[in-house]
Amino acid sequence: DKDGSDSPTALGGNLTLTDDFYDDYHIFGINWYPDKIEWYVDGIVYNTMYLTGDERLEAAAAAFNKPQYLQFNLATGGNWSKNAGYYLASDETAFVIDYVRYYQDAEQKAASEAYYASQPVLKGVKDLTMLEGTSPDLAQAVTTDQEGYVVDFSVENEYLFTNKGGNTNA
Predict the structure, then answer these.
(1) Which residues contact 162 (CB under 8 A, 6 or more apart)?
(2) Distance CA 73, CA 78 (A)
(3) What share of the chain in percent tops pLDDT 90?
(4) CA angle, residues 71, 73, 74, in degrees to nearest 5
(5) Taking CA 67 as the corner, what is the angle to CA 73 and CA 77, rounded to the nearest 5 degrees?
(6) CB under 8 Å to 34, separation ≥6 — which residues?
(7) At 87, is the secondary structure helix, strand, or coil?
(8) pLDDT tens track for 92-109
(9) If you compute the radius of gyration of the chain from its CA atoms, what whole number of angstroms results?
């Protein structure tokens, strides 16, 4: 894509921040709908991605139109935060979250219910206690109510990110 039309960032948006942006709390948000996703800061939508119109957007719709999760961390990447990565460990940087709120409107609720109505339901799920040095079969007796699905699991017991003053994963 020598012209940049298929660049990983071609679908993204940006927001110009003032020098004092970091001096106050802000409200970051995402409005998700089956046909679009909006990103906003302090009530102002700064990017909208419509999930129709070409192959990339339809692939994005297939990825985004299913359950997602939120991950909050202090890891930095790209140049959004300028060169913060090298200084996070040395300048007593704090990642302070005042609150997290999740809600959905009627359209979002209907889309969620339609998605879950067609998804397999796990059966046989139970609480387990894992002890160091043991390897319990976490999927033992866990099945679904639909054929053609395999129940699997993954456990990672290492830290995902070790802050050594930069964007490293040691």
Answers:
(1) 168, 169, 170
(2) 15
(3) 17
(4) 155
(5) 30
(6) 51, 61, 65, 111
(7) coil
(8) 667 788 888 888 999 989
(9) 21
Task: Pull the structure tokens for residue 109.
Answer: 């609720």
At residue 42, the pLDDT reads 93
Tokens of 56: 């990339």
Tokens for 30, please give them.
């995402």
Per domain, the residue ranges of the chain are 1-119, 120-169
Q: Does 1 have pLDDT greater than 50?
A: no
Closest CA to 52 of 90, 84, 80, 11: 11
Q: Convert the pLDDT of each residue in 111-140 to its tens digit.
A: 889 988 988 999 999 888 878 888 888 888
Structure tokens at 114: 């339609």
What's the pLDDT score for residue 142?
Answer: 92
In 3D space, the residue among 66, 45, 54 whose CA is nearest the CA of residue 10 turns out to be: 54
Nearest alpha-carbon partner for 86 in 75, 97, 96, 95: 75
pTM for the full predicted model: 0.60
Q: Which of 143, 91, 99, 97 is nearest to 121 (CA)?
A: 143
Query: What's the one-letter identity of residue 120?
Result: P
